[in-house]
Design a protein that fits this description.
The structure is a single chain. This protein is 10% helix and 59% strand. The chain is mostly beta strands. It has a single domain (2-253), classed as Porin (Beta Barrel), CATH 2.40.160.40. It has a 15-stranded antiparallel sheet that branches. The longest helix has 26 residues, at 2-27. It is globular and about 50 Å long. The termini are far apart.
């Protein structure tokens, strides 16, 4: 009897670990059909004319999927950033809600396991001290493949300003290739770039990021805890330089 009970508990434990690993790998997919709410902190340094400025950005970025009858999904992601910066403009500080970025993808997965998505993207100005004060919009796309413990692919968008006399003329391309590896005990190791090309000023911004995450429930709620570091390989004249830090807690919520 004791042996049978021990065997049952062991099997249940293996199943629980497998479910956690599966969920951890789904979280490496930006358009997975799960509701998640990441809270992400980024710290960048050496910003501004004299490289003495610093910036802290806290992103609240809920991802919400909607299932369609044909097996496809509509997946939305809204990035709401709070920015606090010092000496980016020498001797001054600014803080507030920066522009909101809303994306929506129509996504499908092929028989070969390739997931693709296309849709609109919009930048919504907030009018704060750290806002562009300019409406912008465009198109976004994603393609990714899951192969065993590996998830790899790329996300991209392009936005233009939508005003006849924009405060901040906008014509930029964003490209985010990514690759991740998820272990059987729900650790995820990933690498990505979040590169932006500003066509108005002919400038690249290219941070190289590596992250490690662990899925560990909090009060019964699945949470992925992440620590990341990055390096600015290329940045504009007044942009950040050197190393950057990233912390993130991604909460998984039940679908309604």
């Amino acid at each position: 009897m004791k042996f049978q009970l021990s065997l049952i508990l062991s099997v249940l434990g293996v199943m629980a670990h497998a479910q956690e690993a599966d969920l951890a790998q789904q979280l490496a997919n930006p358009v997975a059909a799960i509701v998640s709410v990441p809270f992400q902190l980024n710290f960048d340094d050496n910003i501004g004319q004299d490289d003495q400025g610093s910036r802290t950005t806290v992103n609240f970025q809920p991802v919400v999927p909607f299932s369609l009858d044909n097996g496809a999904n509509i997946v939305t992601r809204t990035i709401v950033p709070y920015v606090s910066q010092e000496d980016v403009i020498p001797g001054t500080s600014q803080s507030g809600l920066a522009d909101v970025l809303f994306s929506a993808w129509y996504t499908q997965t092929t028989e070969a396991g390739l997931t693709w998505g296309l849709g609109p993207v919009a930048r919504i100005p907030t009018g704060s001290d750290v806002s562009t004060e300019t409406w912008a919009g465009g198109l976004t796309g994603i393609a990714l493949q899951v192969s065993g413990p590996w998830t790899y692919g790329a996300l991209a968008n392009h936005i233009w300003d939508l005003e006849s006399s924009p405060t901040t003329p906008t014509n930029s391309t964003f490209v985010q290739p990514f690759v991740s590896y998820t272990t059987a005990d729900a650790w995820t190791f990933s690498a990505t770039t979040e590169s932006t090309y500003d066509w108005e000023n002919d400038e690249w911004s290219v941070p190289l990021n590596v992250n490690v995450a662990k899925l560990k429930p909090l009060g019964g709620v699945p949470v992925s805890w992440m620590l990341g570091a990055g390096y600015w390989a290329v940045s504009p004249d007044n942009g950040p330089e050197g190393w950057r830090l990233r912390l993130q807690a991604q909460v998984v919520l039940p679908r309604g």
